[in-house]
Amino acid sequence: MSNGTSLKNSTCCAHRTGWLEARQKTSYSVIFLLMLFRFSAIPAPILKTCYVTLLVFLLSSFDQKKEVSVTISQIAQKSDQLPNPLKAEVIGIQDGDTIELKYIFTGNKAGRRSGKPLRIRLLHINCPERGASFYKVAKQYTSQKCFRQNVQIRHEGKFDKYGRLLGEVILLGGKILNKELVKNGYAVHFKKYSTNTEYANLEITAKKQKLGIWGLPLSQFGKL
Questions:
Q1: Is the pTM value of this prediction over 0.85?
Q2: Distance between CA atoms of 151 and 178, rounded to whole angstroms?
Q3: Coil/strand/helix, residue 47
Q4: pLDDT digits (tens), the chain, 224 positions
Q5: Closest CA to 169 of 51, 136, 182, 55
Q6: Cβ distance 196 to 217 under 8 Å?
Q7: Residues 80, 97, 139, CA angle at the centre, nearest 5°?
Q8: What is the number of other CB atoms lying within 10 angstroms of the CB of residue 114?
Q9: Within the chain, where are the H helices?
Q10: What is the dihedral of CA 77, 83, 85, 88, to 10 degrees?
């Protein structure tokens, strides 16, 4: 299962499925037509009727392909409003601290991402960047906790410069993903943008216990 799975991928997959079904029906139809030519002693008027029926059958196959694509593209919720908390399914994991929802936000606050699946930048924390130690571990942890799960996003309607909504991700069962990442040493308290004392204390505890990134030598710690 790919962590980068998103609504776009789901649409493409369904699009391909519809296309394959249409091709399969077309193949059956061609075989049927060849058999008519080879073995038929059927009168011309009846053959004409068969040809017309075949044409309708082929057209309906391609119509089904179109319907599959349109239906999948309409699955996601679409709105210019942001309920608080916002409830939606997680359909993509960009990295440890960024997820994508099955929720199309059309408001201007999202900037260049307006009209696309809403991305959430986990508030108060920062996970290792690509190429750094524990990058894959943090991303995998986030995936295991919420991918294809319905979550709630607690937020204040603020976006970053990349068009991502800043918020806390509330998992099934009530735990907050942001805090769980810091608690396990897969993220640090992002002090540059957060003065939250609870996150600061979670980091201190993880650091004392040498959990996750805090168990690394300083030379491998990298920049967070």
A1: no
A2: 13
A3: helix
A4: 444 444 445 444 444 445 455 555 555 555 555 565 555 566 666 666 665 666 555 555 544 434 333 343 457 889 999 999 999 999 999 999 999 999 999 999 999 999 999 999 999 999 999 999 999 999 999 999 999 999 999 999 999 999 999 999 999 999 999 999 999 999 999 999 999 999 999 999 999 999 999 999 865 655 55
A5: 182
A6: no
A7: 125
A8: 15
A9: 7-39, 44-73, 135-146, 177-183, 197-208, 218-221
A10: 0
To which residue do tokens 């994508």 refer? 100
* Cα angle for residues 139, 9, 62 (degrees, 5° grid): 170
131/134 Cα distance (integer angstroms): 9
Nearest to 88 by CA among 144, 3, 209, 7: 7
Place of tokens 């806390």: 168
